[in-house]
Each structure stands twice: as structure tokens, then as C-alpha cells.
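Troubleshooting log. The previous structure file for this entry was overwritten by mistake, so regenerating from the original sequence record. Sequence copied from the archived sheet and checked twice against the printout by T.R.
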Amino acid sequence: MRAWWVREPAPIESGPLVWGERPDPQPGVRELLVRVRTCGVCRTDLHLAEGDLAPRRPNVVPGHEAVGVVSETGEGCVRFRRGDRVGVAWLGGTCGSCGFCRRGDENLCLSPVFTGWDRDGGYAEQLTVSEDFAYAIPPRFSDEQAAPLLCSGIIGYRALKRAAVPEGGRLGIYGFGGSAHLTAQMARHQGAQVYVMTRSESARALARELGAVFVGDAYDSPPSPLDSAILFAPVGDLVPVALKALDRGGTLAIAGIHLSDIPPLNYSADLFYERQLRSVTANTRADGEEFWSLAAEIPLAPTTTVYPLAQADRALRDLAGSRVTGAAVLKV
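Regenerated output below.
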């Protein structure tokens, strides 16, 4: 099969990804072999290629927003059959036995497995996935629409929960890429007023189209105090900016897996009056199932930019340069 893999992490402009042929994967016990149709391009893939996330094993294939068709089932599979359409997301496995797993917080598992980091992902013509961690895709979404929902959508949903937006509240969103533009739709569906702060002019235009009540630069102050905020941009300098924009009792959730260093915080100016700062770590499968139900109900409308699989390196360069509006998707 044809695939991309990370040869040696380096700045994306220097070409850390290799395009070539790999042996066809084979499904193990309770695993599915999936022929990939589309795969979303996530900022986490960029962090992996550039070394902000150290690869867990050599020559790993990135990609954790893959949509495809089951072409073969391993021994013991009961949830899916050959020909079923499935989605393969970031969370690829958990131990099931640590205290976090037992209490229902499998996103905090002590021995997790992640697609496109621990095991080969969707920047390829085929991949394998544990059937317990595959999703059935609602029929109302095309392959191109469904791909970014598998991470950008699910993690946006988790971040929205962590941000604890009160009913009818004001939600600030910092950065407006693949995940943020989906989260804005979910928040508005739930009755929130959305305020968007981002450096990209095309992203600002999209935010206006999606009904944001205020759109400004990443460092602008919103015209009203925020009840909640979500930071999607991996920029630590924006943490005190977002905290200062919160009203008393407000919550800031940081959605990314990687963040540049946060500058010193001033307790009185940034945190007092019970402002809260929360991180977001992956998601549980329950989050994923809840998200797919909500996504189909709205229904979510992802804005996508499509690239052929052979141009995944260009898609990542465009993502790094803020030249992608909405979510980038690879078509196999």
C-alpha cells in the first residue's frame, strides 16, 4: 500500500514525511482491516511531524481522522462486518484495568494507545483498528464531512463540556480552525453566544458566516465579559489574554495536546474571583458516541479543503501557515 510516514521529525518545510510503499497491514484478534477513503489533517499530525510530540515508534504513519470501509475482520469481531463504513479516531486503545478506566475516565488511562502515534494511522491506503474503538458513521455525513468530525469534532465536544458554558452564556473561542468552527456550531445549537478571536482573516469571515456575535484579532478584548472560553490555538501567550476576558466564575478550557509555554500569571488579575483553567485530554468513547448523536441532530456542517493523499505534506504546510479554512481532508 502507499502511505506517508515520519522519517525524522523536523520543521514541516524541510520535509520530515516520506511518501512510499509499505507492507499491507493484517488485522489481529478483534481488529478490523479498513480500506481508507478519507483522512482529516489535524494539528496534532503537524506536532508529530515537527517533533513537538516525539514519535512513539520509528516511521509511524500519522492520521487519526480516517473514514473507510471494512475489508477484512480479525478473529472474534462481532460489532462490524465486511463492507461496513467505520471511523478511526485518536483514541485507539486503553488498558481497561487502571483506576481511571474503571471509574469511566478512560481518556486518562495510564497505558493508552493512540492512532497515528502509537499505531499507524490514516495517511495510508489501509490501516487496522481495534473494533472496540471504531465508530459507526451516521449515514447523513459523506466521507469528506465525517473525517474531521473524528477528532476536530469529538475533541471540540469534549472541550465544550470542559468549558462549562452556562445556558445562554457567552463563549469565547481563541483560534478558529478545524475543531473551533465545529465547536462554534455546537455551542450555538445549545444556545450560547459565540465570540471568536483569531489572527486569520479567512477564519474571521467563516466565524461571521457561522453566526459569531463578535469577531476580532487573537489578542483583542471581547466587548462583553465571557462566561467561558476555549483556547484552540497552541499559543501559551493567549492563556492570560483569555483569562482576563473571563467574567467572575468563568472557565477557560485548553483544547490542544501541545501548547507553547504559558507566561507568568498574575493571581489577582488572571485567576481571582474563581476563574478556572482546565486542560482537555483526549476523549472517552462515551464522548464520541454522544458527539455523533449531537452532530447528526444539528447537523454539523464541516468546512473542508480537500487534498489528494499524495499531497499530505502540502496540506500540513498549509496548516502550519494558516492557509486552510476549516479542516483539511485527504482523499485516498
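The chain has a mean pLDDT of 96. Archived copy saved in two places this time.
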